Structure formats: C-alpha cells, structure tokens
C-alpha cells in the first residue's frame, strides 16, 4: 500500500543499547515510500521483577502509521500486565496481550472513526530472558535466530495463500485474489485492519484477518550469535541465509551494531527494495568479535574495488554511473561480503565515481 517517491529518503533513524549481556542496534529508513509507516521498540531490562528480561519489536504499518505507532508504545504493557504472564505462563500471556491490544485499539476514537482508513500493522517481537527467547509473530515481518553464521530458526510469514490462512479467510466469507485478502491486503494476520474483522458470527481469531500471533520458545545456547527482527522491506530482497551470513561477516569487522544495521538497509536499497525498512539486531555473548585479519581483508577488498572501478572507467571510457555498476557486476571480484555481494560495497564505488566525476549524479532507476 502507498505510493512511491521520485527519489528514496535515505536518512536513517538509529538506536542502540546494552544490558543483560546483550547488545542491540536499530536502523529504520523510509526509502522509496511516500510515508514512513514502520515503528519499533527496544528495551533492555523490564520492570516488576523482570530486570533480567529484554523486549524488542518491529511493526510494519500499512494504510497509515497510527496502528504501528500505538502498538510500539503499548504492546509490551499489554502483554506483561496479563495475569498469565505475571504467573509465569509467558506464551499464553503474549497471546492474550496481542488480542487485548487489538480489542482496545478498536475502541479508540482516533482509530475507529473511519475503520476503512485506520489501517493496520504487522508485529514481530521477542522477549529475551536469561534462559529463553520467546518470539511472537503476526503478519509478514520476520524474526531469525542465527548460530554459527546460519539461521537455525525463523518465523513464517502470514500470507493469504498459506493453506491454514486461506481456509480461515474462506470460512469467514472472504476470498484470496492475487495473493491478497479479498484482493487488497497482502497479509492474513495483523493488528488493526478492522474493516477485515466484522464477521459477527466469527470469533476474534476467525476473522478474514486475525490478530492472533504465532508464538515460539527457543532455549538459549552458548552458540547463539544474534537475533534479527525486521520488516518485509528487508526480506523482500535478502533471504534468511543472506542476512545471517552478512551480519556474521560484518561482526568480524566491527561491534557497532548500528553501523551493521545501516549496512543491511543500504544493501537492501541497492538490491532493489522499495519499501520502508526497519531492522533490530540483538547480539548475544556468542556473537563473533572483530579480528585484525578480517578488518585488513575488508580494507584490501575496498582498495581492490576502487582500483577496478577506476580501471573500468578508464578502459571503457564509462561516464554513466548505472553503466559502471553493470560493468562491475560482470567482474569476478573475490571476497565480497557473503549475503551482500557487490551491493554491500556500492558506497566505495560511489565515492570513487564522485572523485572522478564530481558533477555527475550517482543515481539509477532503482537507487
């Protein structure tokens, strides 16, 4: 949903923190969309006896940002205040919290004056305790847990074409057309979207669009490296394996998670993502640490890319930035960041091009 700009807005909103033996970094960017509809929440150390717990969440709004922003502010309290969560049944507490906030928002004047325009949001969140990671997902944002550079767990996107989702939609009197609920909404579970939740003879979780999250519990292990929460603007152009291998390789160069999160978003932009993009990287004690060897290898790679860029320009008399990128894509350059490839090093190419052609623009139809 939503239109596109003539040029992407690449200013990023960043956040970071540490505590409970965790580090986290956040990057969020509007990109090509006319509006920024993503929201996030990150907190290390929770109140009321949960000092050793942390909470992280990404919300991808659609048809406006009201629902995503409200959930970013209030979902945590809606979960932790449930009787189930307070009594130690955390899975049931998370589910109850999701369903409760969806009912509460429905009654808010700013959201129910015009149900067709109130919009909705996906939600993916994680509670990290000293021994467990509880992950909840509603929609097509995604959580991926990485160990030793590979994804060992990932949530499943809630798309209308999934058999279970499609059956519920049909039972509620709806249809799936062009892979969308009633031909319009691309996700089958979301918070908000009350114009898809008006079948009176059906329960809250039996509507065309359900607010019910899928909840998973993963026992923490010493091999845990990091957890990624991100919206579909990331996953549209990078696979789970791509993101894990890319972040794993960058952690050997820097422990600045904001820098790495920014690099993921920039790489996705260069790979052609045209959506809002938000990502939270949560690093566990087992995450890779920077090494001098990896840092030197990255410096050599960037020097090599700069030399190859100058060579292509001089040899083939290239003066167009897009033509230069195409030529470099055809070159067999070894040692590129896994999962990111040459797209992850476009800043080096751009810097070199601007040195050679100060008055030329580094623009193409996709970035």
UniProtKB/TrEMBL annotation:
Keywords on record: Cytoplasm, Hydrolase, Lipoprotein, Magnesium, Manganese, Membrane, Metal-binding, Myristate, Phosphoprotein, Protein phosphatase
Domain named PPM-type phosphatase: residues: 23-284
GO cellular component: cytosol; membrane
Domain of life: Eukaryota
Keyword flag Cytoplasm: yes
Entry membrane topology: Lipid-anchor
Chief location: cytoplasm
GO molecular function, one term: protein serine/threonine phosphatase activity
Keyword Magnesium assigned: yes
Subcellular location: Cytoplasm, Cytosol; Membrane
Cofactor: Mg(2+); Mn(2+)
Protein family membership: Belongs to the PP2C family.
PANTHER family found in the cross-reference section: PROTEIN PHOSPHATASE (PTHR47992)
Protein name: PPM-type phosphatase domain-containing protein
Organism: Glossina morsitans morsitans (Savannah tsetse fly)
């Amino acid at each position: 949903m939503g239109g596109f700009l003539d040029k992407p807005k690449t200013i990023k909103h960043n956040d970071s923190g540490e505590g409970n033996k965790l580090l986290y970094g956040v990057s969020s960017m509007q990109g090509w969309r006319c509006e920024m509809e993503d929201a996030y929440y990150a907190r290390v150390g929770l109140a009321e006896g949960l000092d050793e717990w942390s909470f992280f969440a990404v919300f991808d709004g659609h048809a406006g940002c009201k629902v995503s922003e409200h959930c970013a502010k209030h979902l945590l309290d809606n979960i932790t205040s449930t009787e189930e969560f307070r009594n130690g049944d955390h899975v049931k507490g998370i589910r109850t919290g999701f369903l409760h906030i969806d009912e509460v928002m429905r009654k808010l004047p700013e959201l129910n004056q015009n149900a067709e325009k109130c919009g909705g949001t996906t939600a993916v969140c994680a509670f990290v305790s000293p021994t467990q990671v509880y992950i909840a997902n509603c929609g097509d944002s995604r959580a991926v847990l990485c160990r030793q550079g590979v994804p060992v767990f990932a949530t499943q996107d809630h798309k209308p074409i999934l058999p279970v989702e499609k059956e519920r939609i049909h039972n509620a009197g709806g249809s799936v057309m062009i892979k969308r609920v009633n031909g319009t909404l691309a996700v089958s579970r979301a918070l908000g979207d009350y114009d898809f939740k008006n079948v009176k003879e059906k329960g809250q979780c039996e509507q065309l669009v359900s607010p019910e999250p899928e909840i998973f519990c993963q026992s923490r292990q010493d091999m845990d490296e990091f957890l990624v929460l991100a919206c579909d603007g990331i996953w549209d152009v990078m696979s789970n394996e791509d993101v894990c291998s890319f972040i794993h390789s960058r952690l050997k160069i820097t422990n600045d998670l904001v820098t790495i999160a920014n690099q993921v978003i920039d790489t996705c932009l260069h790979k052609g993502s045209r959506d809002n993009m938000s990502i939270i990287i949560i690093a566990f004690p087992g995450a890779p640490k920077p090494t001098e060897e990896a840092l030197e290898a990255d410096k050599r790679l960037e020097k090599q890319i700069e030399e190859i860029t100058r060579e292509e320009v001089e040899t083939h008399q290239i003066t167009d930035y897009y033509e230069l990128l195409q030529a470099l894509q055809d070159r067999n350059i070894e040692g590129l960041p896994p999962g990111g490839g040459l797209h992850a090093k476009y800043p080096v190419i751009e810097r070199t091009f601007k040195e050679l052609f100060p008055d030329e623009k580094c623009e193409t139809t996709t970035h």
